[in-house]
Amino acid sequence: MSNLISFTDKGLYCVQGNFYIDPWKPVDKAIITHGHADHAYLGHRNYLCHPYTKTILQLRLGDNNYQTLEWNEIINLNGVKVSLHPAGHIIGSSQVRLEYNHEVWVVSGDYKVEDDGISGQFEPLKCTTFITESTFGLPIFKWKPQEEIYSNIINWISKNKENGKTSVLLAYSLGKAQRVLQAIKETTQTIFAHGAVFNLQSMLIDDGWNLTPVERITPETPAELLKGTVVVAPPGADGTPWMKKFNPYSVGVCSGWMQVRGNARRRNVDAGFVLSDHADWNGLIQTVKETGAERIFVTHGFQSAFSRYCNEQNIAIAAEVKTQYGNEDEEAVQENVKQESGI
């Protein structure tokens, strides 16, 4: 079995096709799986991505040489057949399928298997080699149906209203925020948002997405107007002076990391809702099996635990790969998980 993709200090490199996938250093040709900052960097000469991702990249990276490819559309790059397929992670997120010399490689990027109604239904692809994330690659991470989580969030908002508190929901501005906003749109007449959430939500609505509109919070927004309302903000807003305007308020974090007992307490928040844009333990195993891959490479997350399990269970020949995907916040929480899990 050949190595159609090499793991370099710039990123995942397809030697035959002469292009990179989600490189973290400037390259000539980059295929981008999705618009999150750890997968989409500034400085590449040429970008190839799904049309939905192009809109996001234009907002985040500005004007560049973008080429788009619809899901299931095939192009030929130096003899390598390349196509994009839904990853279900966030809007526009795609897996990259490469076919060359009777071998099929799939780079999944980030993915989740439950259909959130916005990001596209994840599509398992048959392949000989599969490159998978493992953000939540431990058995403790098993998600409940999203509708159950949404119901819990709505009930929490109702209780806060009864107690005269503003509900501040912390969710990543790209991906999580869109899901949360759709889930809570009937809870209040106006949903207020941090500028980072407002900018992305407004851009997506302008691009034709039927998403929940929000009102931006500015320095001029009267504090009285915000009392007892619902506010959606990125995690980075927590603990900043920006939050003072909402007093009295209750903070809820929407994150898969809330699965671990104690993370809500460590972050000093009032509620934790286990809502993730990544596959859980069962989803990762299910996906690897469905690909039928003989070999898998495991990137960011709990690579060691997940690859070891795949090898021990004879699911596939698994190996760990070091990349620059993931972020510092995730790494800090992972340390807490390791301590509680004894790994």
Automatic annotation (TrEMBL):
One of its GO terms (molecular function) is RNA endonuclease activity. Its EC number is 3.1.-.-. Keywords: Exonuclease, Hydrolase, Ligase, Nuclease. It is an enzyme of class 3 (hydrolase). InterPro entries: MBL (IPR050698), RibonucZ/Hydroxyglut_hydro (IPR036866), Xnuc_lig_assoc (IPR026360). It comes from the Bacteria. Signal peptide: none annotated. This is Ligase-associated DNA damage response exonuclease. It comes from Ginsengibacter hankyongi.
